[in-house]
Amino acid sequence: MTNQTSWRPFLMVCFALCMGTIGTALASPLYPIYQQLWQLVPSQITAIFVAYMFGCLATLLFLGRMSNNLGYLRTLQIGIGFVILGLICSVFAHNILWLGIGRFIIGIASGLITTSAMIGLLITIPKQYQSHAPQFSSMIIAIGFGLGPLVGGIIAQFSQQPLVTPYLPIILGAFLCLIGLYFVKNPSFEKQSFSIRPRLEFPDIKYKSTFLSTGLTAFVAFGIFSLFASLAPSFIQNLIPWNGPLVSGSAIASILFISAITQFLARSRAPQKNMQLGLITLLMSVVLLAICVSMQWGILFFVSDFFVGVGHGLSLLGAFGMVHHMTHLNNRAAVVSTYLFMGYLGTIIPILSVGYLSDHFGLTTGILTFCVVIGCLSVWLFYRFKQKPQHM
User: Residue 164: how many CB atoms within 10 A of its CB?
Assistant: First the structure.
């Protein structure tokens, strides 16, 4: 690992990670506009969202070890290039197919950027702060994902072309980021053989049980956030008197900003304790959301939104910390890819199920079913961490 003394490479990696996540989440508050313009049903909205996740999963499955072969910096540059391509495709999308293709490309970018940037942060962060690298990466991801819907919502709310203008400043920012990365020196590293053969790498066998529980915790956290990011802009219009991309974008962004603040405040607590508290908070959030959509109490939406942010921050901070302790530099990129693969499944399976149920039985039924299933899984994981000693 490089004993870095300059902050410049570290800040460039942070900027790249932030731009990648902003580009990823930018479209969320625009979904109701696409829905109205193209007359989409809930399952089609979730399909657009899931197209992005399939891009992420394909990258993690086939290209998760690219950083070990090309180095984190080259992989990061390729990821930013895919962000630009996916956003340009979204600008010119004239139907659900082209928008889905754009989202899929952005998903590829997200997979490349997340894994390579996490390695880059570990390498470039000044030596005295290296123990805090996992917390930095988790917080930056949360901030970037929060800025995406907020920026997209603000621009779309006041733009004459709400499906074009929000993408333009992010394309420019990603392009400037790509240029900046070419001025960062690519450090020497132990080059490993590269293969696109699908493979999920796990940490040492003694960590197997802990790692699976950690991955399922990410499944829960990613799943709950994805429900808000994909369908909340649609059902929020029936719960509160205000609407528009700014309102829905702010609701989504607040989750991530609360998550980032929570992670900063809880950064010194033991990872396993953070995950336990996070799971309980996520359970409270789905209980409140279920009451909200059943009774049509709009105020509970904001309370649930707050608890999602706190639970998301605590659980992912704990999960990143545990993965960091279970891995070493040579296998971290591959194991992180496996961890993210498990987490991203939470953004596909539950969300597609909610879309299907909403089409056939109504949006309320779809959301209530989601709340029950995710709530039960949260309880099971909490007691698993509480009762079974973890190898850390």
Answer: 15
| HSE value, Cβ hemisphere, 13 Å, CA-based, for 210 | 22
User: Which segment of 240-249, 303-312, 366-375 scores lowest on mean pLDDT?
Assistant: 240-249
In 3D, which of 198, 225, 246 has the Cα closest to residue 312?
A: 225
| Residue 274: other Cβ atoms inside 10 A | 25
pLDDT above 80 for 131: no
How much of the chain is in helix, strand and coil states, percent to nearest 5?
A: 80, 0, 20
Residue identified by tokens 């020497």 is: 188
Q: Treating both helix axes as pointing N-terminal to C-terminal, what angle do 96-124 and 72-91 enclose, rounded to 10 degrees?
A: 160
Tell me if 337 sits within 8 A of 200, measured CB to CB: yes
CA angle, corner 145, sides to 143 and 149, nearest 5? 115
Q: Which residue has the tokens 């004993």?
A: 3
**How far from chain centre, in Å, is Cα 44?**
20
- 10 Å CB burial of residue 61 (0-12, 13-18, 19+) is middle
Closest by CA position to 67, among listed 319, 332, 326, 342? 332
